[in-house]
Amino acid sequence: MRVDTPVYDVVGVGFGPSNLSLAIALAEHNATAATPLTARFLERQPRFGWHRGMLLDDATMQVSFLKDLVTLRNPTSEFSFVAYLHSRGRLVDFVNHKSLFPLRVEFHDYFEWCAAKMAEQVLYGQEVAAVNPVVVDGAVAYFDVVSRPTDGGEPKTVRARNLVLATGLRPNLPDGVSAGERIWHNSTLLRDIDNVPEAAKRFVVVGAGQSAAEATAFLHTRFGDAEVCSVFSRFGYSPADDSAFANRVFDPAAVDEYYLAPEEAKRKIMGYHANTNYSVVDIDLIDDLYKRMYQEKVLGKQRLRMFNVSRPVDVADLGDRVRVTVESMTSGERTVLEADVVVYATGYRGDDSLALLGDLAGECARDDQGRLQVSRDYRVHTSADIAAGIYVQGGATEHSHGITSSLLSNNAVRSGEILDAILRGDRTPVPAAELALSTLG
Fold it and tell me: Which fold has domain 171-239+278-347?
């Protein structure tokens, strides 16, 4: 090791909402700790950003503002959404608004407000290239994390006693489909839309979830003379179940129950409650789209077309347009659409953050289905000769911790659990029930 290689108690890879929440938990701990923990976070983006491509002006959050970065862990935190509103001079206005669900652009601004307070802990524009073991007395005591500036330059190395991987999700496109000038994933919608001329004649949106419905409504509103065709395999958009009892699947205590449940019970829970999050749409947006479609039928000028129980079977980029062949799944009838742009709102896939570990990934335990074995406090099970800690946040723990793994609902609590595990400094898994009591009590 070079003599100037800095050593940190915690190095986080990725700085989205998950590791931002952890950074805040660390800062609050350090404010009163006799021995503060040191931390450094590495983020590939040039600045903080969370789903920037879908920060539509009228889109609202689908979780309560109380499920911010801190409140469920520390209700008195100065980093709460309420504190943010006060600092922006909008607290009374928000109260008068009588809504639990802020605008998405507002919640993103809240994230940026918090991230700015953590700026000294973060290196932006850094792509992590490798994680190398550092052996002391026969055991891996540290990890050397090597990153390269995204704009070129010399690599940097930081040394970690504990590594927290939160590399987020990657846009998912169907097999055989590649993004291009006229074929997009919805994650780049706002980035790319200004390149489309106002005279565009037709858009095709593929997908049945919230993002697909939002993209459909946005394009239909923005391009007042264009046809917008929504293609999905269901009979209609399915409403999200956000009722009070169903929402209990997002409770912190539900993570304990899920973690301890047998595999068969876990499969049933995911099946029962997939409609709280996956391929579902807020009922108000469903009603709005149906109202638009019906109104156009009455007026005799239909711009919003729904190709339900259908799928795209061929998408050809012709340079100046895209030719989409849509097939009915019931009749087999095919319709050819010439479109200016095709938007795939086909979800995200988990990033394989363990690939960064190289040979170390082979020291991480997996179950008989090849899934990562993770303790209740999100520490990866490793071979006995790895003493340094590896923690994961995000979709890599959905099989073990449940549906909230890649969502905001338990972000604050999860960060507190990871911090507590790091402070314990041992490799002994804590019983789930005990962990819940220590976190929530």
Answer: FAD/NAD(P)-binding domain (3.50.50)
What's the sign of the alpha-carbon dihedral 247, 249, 252, 257? positive
3-state secondary structure of 268: helix
Whether 171-239+278-347 and 7-168+351-440 are alike in CATH topology: the answer is yes
Domain ranges (residues) in the chain: 7-168+351-440, 171-239+278-347
Q: Please state whether beta strands 183-185 and 139-149 pair in parallel, antiparallel, or not at all (unpaired).
A: unpaired
Phi, psi of 370 (to 5 degrees): 80, 10
**Nearest C-alpha neighbor of 254 from the set 92, 440, 423, 123:** 440
Q: Do 264 and 272 touch, CB atoms closer than 8 A? A: no
Among residues 426, 397, 403, the alpha carbon closest in space to that of 165 is found at 397
Q: Is 47 exposed, middle or buried (0-12, 13-18, 19+ CB in 10 A)?
A: middle
Q: What is the pTM (predicted TM-score) of this model?
A: 0.93
Does the domain formed by 7-168+351-440 have CATH 3.40.1280.10? no
How does pLDDT run across 152-178, given as a tens digit for each residue?
Answer: 999 999 999 999 999 988 999 999 999
Contacts of 91 (CB under 8 A, 6+ apart): 82, 85
- What is the side-by-side strand order in the sheet with 183-185? 183-185, 341-344, 202-206, 227-231, 304-307
Is 281:237 a contact under the CB 8 Å cutoff? yes
Q: What is the pLDDT of residue 2?
A: 53
The token pair that represents 393 in the structure block: 């946040």
